[in-house]
């Protein structure tokens, strides 16, 4: 797939998601994919390397969750186990007004993330290489999110200290995680599960909202 076709696929996907991004942001998203593909040859950041699938699986799969999260009006967001940068980097490109931390304990992955944020000019992003249990920021986050990081119960337990007062967990999941929800600690409250239709992706996706119990 040529870059022009990738750009067309991205533009059509954004339209279906109801997201308006300017040409510079769309260029940044495609440049991010190019960096991911380049670094993947050495660092094995992703198993999905087919150009057309990279648009749907890395960009649109992340951006499908943007509008529901943006509706909560967060100022700060932590992407836990960011890996190759999803959903944090697409979020940072689409919402330069958010302060975003990308956290991963893998040095190779955070080396990529740091280089990507520099090359993409993402001044709203901080990359942290640390275990989530040991990461102690000065302030908590409005949204703590993850994509394919851990089951919900562990995600909540390991990141509880990262929530700002009134903050919420927003976990990107595949099919509706009934068993994971049933295993959540008793001192948190389920807020809901939002289905996330992803353009070009047949598999199910959803966003699971959780908060501290009163």
UniProtKB/TrEMBL annotation:
Keywords: Cytoplasm, Methyltransferase, rRNA processing, S-adenosyl-L-methionine, Transferase. GO terms for biological process: methylation. It catalyses: guanosine(527) in 16S rRNA + S-adenosyl-L-methionine = N(7)-methylguanosine(527) in 16S rRNA + S-adenosyl-L-homocysteine. One of its GO terms (molecular function) is methyltransferase activity. Its main location: cytoplasm. It is found in: Cytoplasm. CDD domains: AdoMet_MTases. S-adenosyl-L-methionine binds at residues 81, 86, 132-133, 147. It holds the Pfam family GidB. Its EC number is 2.1.1.170. The keyword 4Fe-4S does not apply. InterPro entries: rRNA_ssu_MeTfrase_G, SAM-dependent_MTases_sf. It is an enzyme of class 2 (transferase). Specifically methylates the N7 position of guanine in position 527 of 16S rRNA. Belongs to the methyltransferase superfamily. RNA methyltransferase RsmG family. This is Ribosomal RNA small subunit methyltransferase G. The lineage of its organism: Bacteria, Pseudomonadati, Pseudomonadota, Betaproteobacteria, Neisseriales. The gene is rsmG.
């Amino acid at each position: 797939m040529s870059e022009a076709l990738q750009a067309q696929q991205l533009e059509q996907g954004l339209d279906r998601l109801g997201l308006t991004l300017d040409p510079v942001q769309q260029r940044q998203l495609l440049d991010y994919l190019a960096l991911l593909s380049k670094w993947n040859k050495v660092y094995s950041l992703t198993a999905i390397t087919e150009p057309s699938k990279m648009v749907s699986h890395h960009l649109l799969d992340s951006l499908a969750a943007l509008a529901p999260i943006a509706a909560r009006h967060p100022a700060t967001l932590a992407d836990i186990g960011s890996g190759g940068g999803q959903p944090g980097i697409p979020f940072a490109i689409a919402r330069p007004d958010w302060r975003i931390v990308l956290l991963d304990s893998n040095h190779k992955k955070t080396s990529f993330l740091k280089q990507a944020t520099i090359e993409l000019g993402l001044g709203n992003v901080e990359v942290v290489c640390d275990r989530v249990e040991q990461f102690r920021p000065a302030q908590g986050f409005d949204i703590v999110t993850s994509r394919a990081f851990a089951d919900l119960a562990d995600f909540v337990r390991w990141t509880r200290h990262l929530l700002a007062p009134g903050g919420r967990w927003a976990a990107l999941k595949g099919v509706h995680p009934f068993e994971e929800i049933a295993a959540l600690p008793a001192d948190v409250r389920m807020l809901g599960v939002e289905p996330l239709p992803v353009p070009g992706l047949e598999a199910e996706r959803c966003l699971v909202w959780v908060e501290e119990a009163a």
